[in-house]
């Protein structure tokens, strides 16, 4: 992690020279947060970012403004190399980042109302784990991945989650596993909201099925159940 510290120090020096405080939205502070995820083993790849009220990809009617990878090769790009992360951020200091799921971790993605309820219940049960909020709309519960079952038929893939315009059709729980991704804090969205940690990546990853039980109950109580109770991907 010495290289990560060296890059953070370099960014902080550049911020000072430009008269910019090292706050949450400065490159140095953002790099420091992203390195926390790298230390937890989360593979990262660069994503689009807000360009005014639009997406930096310039796609007309982008279905996921500032919430998708910049490259179709994101699964190959995703890395825990702090040097590569710093290079990406130096090329585009405003870049958001996604984390590829199904390798080290999965993500259970629920409406915020259900997420708040589940977070309280998981805390009461002593179940820890990283949790992020996507603006005021969604909560992301990071869990251990299902790994590689002996029976390949039990290892389902996520649909590539690059067209979240289907969110209105599946407003309940979404399970991001193999072949999917989620935004990683800190990330900015075009409406001015952000993706932020509620419990950081240093938390141990809990068993996904234990978290799933609590989340499905919470989604049912707030009336946010998708047709199949959850959508993979």
UniProtKB/TrEMBL annotation:
<feature type="domain" description="DNA primase/polymerase bifunctional N-terminal">
    <location>
        <begin position="34"/>
        <end position="209"/>
    </location>
</feature>
<dbReference type="InterPro" id="IPR015330">
    <property type="entry name" value="DNA_primase/pol_bifunc_N"/>
</dbReference>
<dbReference type="Pfam" id="PF09250">
    <property type="entry name" value="Prim-Pol"/>
</dbReference>
<protein>
    <submittedName>
        <fullName>Bifunctional DNA primase/polymerase</fullName>
    </submittedName>
</protein>
């Amino acid at each position: 992690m010495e290289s990560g510290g060296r890059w953070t120090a370099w960014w902080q020096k550049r911020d000072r020279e430009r008269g910019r405080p090292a706050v949450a939205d400065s490159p140095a502070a953002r790099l420091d947060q992203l390195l926390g995820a790298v230390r937890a083993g989360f593979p990262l790849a660069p994503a689009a970012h807000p360009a005014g009220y639009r997406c930096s990809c310039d796609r007309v009617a982008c279905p996921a403004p500032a919430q998708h990878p910049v490259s179709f090769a994101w699964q190959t790009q995703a890395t825990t190399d702090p040097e590569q992360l710093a290079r990406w951020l130096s090329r585009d200091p405003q870049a958001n980042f996604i984390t590829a799921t199904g390798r080290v971790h999965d993500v259970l993605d629920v409406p915020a109302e259900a997420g708040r309820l589940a977070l309280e219940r998981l805390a009461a049960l002593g179940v820890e784990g990283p949790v992020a909020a996507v603006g005021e709309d969604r909560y992301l519960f990071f869990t251990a991945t299902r790994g590689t079952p002996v029976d390949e038929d039990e290892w389902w893939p996520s649909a590539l989650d690059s067209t979240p315009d289907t969110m209105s059709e599946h407003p309940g729980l979404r399970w991001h596993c193999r072949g999917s991704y989620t935004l990683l804090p800190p990330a900015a969205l075009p409406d001015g909201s952000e993706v932020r940690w509620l419990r950081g990546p240093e938390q141990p990853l809990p068993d996904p099925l234990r978290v799933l039980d609590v989340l499905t109950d919470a989604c049912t109580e707030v009336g946010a159940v998708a047709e199949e109770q959850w959508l993979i991907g």
